[in-house]
Amino acid sequence: MDYRKGLRVSKIVFFSGVGVWLLGIAIGAIIHALAVIMVSAVLCLGIMFVGIYLATKWVRCPHCGGSLMLGGLIPGSLPNYCPHCGENL
Ligand SMILES: [Zn+2]
Q: What residues have a C-beta under 5 A from ligand 1, the ion?
């Protein structure tokens, strides 16, 4: 997996988790079911965790293999240079 594509895909996964939660809140509010909101919150956390996991796997420097994550979080954009080996990204 290319690191740029990997970043994009893991971001999509991460934010679709947020989308699931918002959808759950909306549905739960409409049908007055707290359980729906609770389940969607758990699903959201699970999906976000998967997104972060994929990013730690895929968002890596192609030169040295060092992680390009921002302290365990998915970076908003990629740095110009690898923080590990200094190679141009
Ligand atoms: Zn590197």
A: 61, 63-64, 66, 82, 84-85
